[in-house]
Backbone:
């Protein structure tokens, strides 16, 4: 069965819901691991006051019994604690007192295009669903996808490589999952301690100027078998699916796979990964410029994707806009906001990549029970002579 993930909910509504359909039966889940990812999404220097209110956790309400999946859809709910302060404005049902409309769209947000598309007069009908608060539900669903992948020997991790003008140094050798064990201890989730210190300073300087700041995070997947995805149609190319998933993250404006945009300026001999073979290792590469993807399929090397995040559009010193009720010039809506979300976005990136990869494993290997999936993968590995890296 294909893997399908859907979320519902608004930023200041009663809560968020995620439904994950297509997981095999018998998959063991760990509530602490799920809530651990929920907490990780709230990390990072530059987060705003909302993170002091919300203490996110995911409550499983369907599809799991005694810690194992049943083969049906799994439903998770994430409460919005801040709803207590918004109950009149965001109540699902009519309220006694009139609620003032919001007429000040923010440049860079979904506000204006959304009210035009759906015929609203109140910007809040758009901004609540468009808010990155929705990613809390994605991370909950992604935690299930990560549990499925871990059961198959696949690990998904992330780290921040740039904030504003500050870039982390390139790692001196190949990274492994163990290199990411302490990444969350960094205030910006960066592996380079010196760069992390400079990133914190950059955030502080721009926050004092009432500015937001963007950057780049990198997400990696280790332990993938070759051949996930397909070359036979554009819809099945895994790089296209990954690009769509990562670009769907609020404020994401660019995705590079492997060396990404850097490949455009290189000659072909310096852009591709030469192929080698030994009886001990089978087929292997000495470089990974492709980021573990060729022809829309995984190669068996670590999958690497980098995502460029723009500064978020809600500013403490609002930009110029137009009042949609009067068409008069006005300042954009000012709401409680973060100054930098790149570290948290990396955790969302893990969730989205895990969802795509879990779907690719389900497409290729099927299986009603997790043991069926493992058996199918073992048979495939034996057929192609592939050994886990």
Residues:
């Amino acid at each position: 069965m294909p893997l399908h993930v859907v979320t519902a909910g608004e930023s200041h509504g009663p809560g968020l819901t995620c439904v994950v359909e297509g997981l095999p039966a018998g998959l063991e889940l760990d509530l602490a691991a799920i809530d651990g990812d929920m907490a990780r999404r709230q990390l990072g220097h530059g987060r705003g006051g909302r993170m002091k209110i919300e203490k996110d956790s995911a409550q499983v309400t369907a599809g799991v019994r005694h810690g194992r999946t049943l083969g049906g859809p799994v439903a998770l709910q994430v409460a919005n604690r801040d709803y207590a302060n918004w109950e009149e404005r965001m109540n699902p049902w009519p309220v006694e007192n009139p609620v003032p409309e919001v007429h000040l769209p923010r440049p860079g947000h979904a506000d204006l295009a959304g009210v035009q598309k759906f015929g609203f007069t109140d910007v809040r009908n758009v901004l609540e669903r468009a808010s990155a608060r929705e990613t809390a539900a994605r991370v909950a669903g992604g935690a299930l996808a990560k549990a499925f992948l871990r059961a198959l020997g696949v690990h998904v991790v992330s780290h921040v490589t740039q904030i504003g003008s500050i870039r982390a140094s390139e790692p001196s050798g190949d990274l492994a999952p163990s290199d990411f064990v302490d990444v969350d201890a960094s205030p910006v989730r960066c592996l380079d301690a010196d760069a992390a210190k400079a990133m914190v300073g950059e955030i502080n300087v721009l926050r004092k100027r009432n500015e937001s700041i963007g950057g780049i995070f990198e997400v990696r997947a280790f332990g993938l078998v070759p051949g996930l995805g397909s070359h036979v149609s554009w819809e099945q190319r895994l790089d296209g699916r990954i690009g769509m998933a990562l670009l769907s993250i609020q404020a994401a404006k660019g995705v590079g796979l492997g060396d990404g945009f850097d490949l455009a300026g290189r000659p072909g001999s310096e852009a591709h990964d030469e192929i080698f073979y030994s009886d001990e290792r089978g087929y292997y590469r000495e470089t990974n410029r492709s980021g573990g993807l060729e022809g829309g399929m995984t190669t068996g090397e670590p999958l690497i994707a980098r995502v460029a995040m723009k500064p978020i559009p809600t500013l403490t010193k609002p930009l110029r806009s137009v009042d949609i009720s009067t068409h008069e010039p006005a300042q954009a809506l000012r709401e409680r906001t973060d100054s930098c979300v790149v570290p948290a976005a990396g955790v969302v990136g893990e969730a989205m990549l895990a969802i795509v990869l879990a779907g690719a494993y389900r497409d290729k290997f099927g299986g009603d029970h997790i043991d069926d999936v493992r058996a199918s993968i073992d048979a495939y590995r034996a057929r192609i002579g592939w050994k886990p890296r």
